[in-house]
Amino acid sequence: MSGKAPMPIQKLTAPKKPSPKKDAGAVKSVCGKDGGGFKITREEVQQAFDFFDVNSTGVLRPKDLKTRLSAFYPHMTNKEYRFLISEPNFTVDTLWSLLESNNVTNFDPVKEAFKVYDPNGTGFIDVEVLKGIMGRMGYGEMSKEDMDVLIKTADVDQDGRISLEDFRSMLNFNKA
To answer: For 62, how many CA atoms within 13 A lie in the half-sphere containing its CB?
Structure first.
């Protein structure tokens, strides 16, 4: 452990308004603010929701979050997972409503995700953290050679390390 305080956990609860109707043009639906926030399409929200909806029930439960997030946050408690999703019917519409009404500005979700791999704030992915995450995701014990291949694959600027910009490039490459 780095001795740093854990990142604060924000409770996910929907605003008290009717949820948006699903439509065939959902890909064109965008939420987020023009004043510095980030924009996300309905399709991207659905993809994120589907990732966490491990049993394809259409409703997220704390145990679903735990299934996916425990590889990245192995010390998160059941109470914290219940805090994140306390609504009994947390659907993709609930998530969309949360994002639609957000007031977050200057938020960089890729940078926030990168912090999981760089817990000490060095600006580079910690190889041991990456190795641990890969193991917890079911890839087994990663050898030094395996790790070298992972790093070389993601190291766009070829400096032998994975920086935030390398990480960002890797995610953009996977979108194509």
So the answer is: 15
Q: Are 112 and 9 in contact, with CB atoms under 8 Å apart?
A: no
Write the CATH number for 127: 1.10.238.10
Q: Is the pLDDT of residue 20 over 70?
A: no
Widest CA span in the chain: 52
Q: Is the pTM of this model over 0.85?
A: no
Domain count, the chain: 2
Please indicate whether residue 27 or residue 6 has the higher confidence score (pLDDT): 6
Residue 45, in any domain of the structure:
yes
- What proportions of the chain, in percent to the nearest 5, are helix, strand and coil? 45, 5, 45
Q: What is the pLDDT of residues 81-132, one digit of tens each?
A: 998 888 889 999 998 888 877 666 667 878 888 999 999 999 999 999 999 9
Last residue of a domain, one of 46, 81, 100: 100
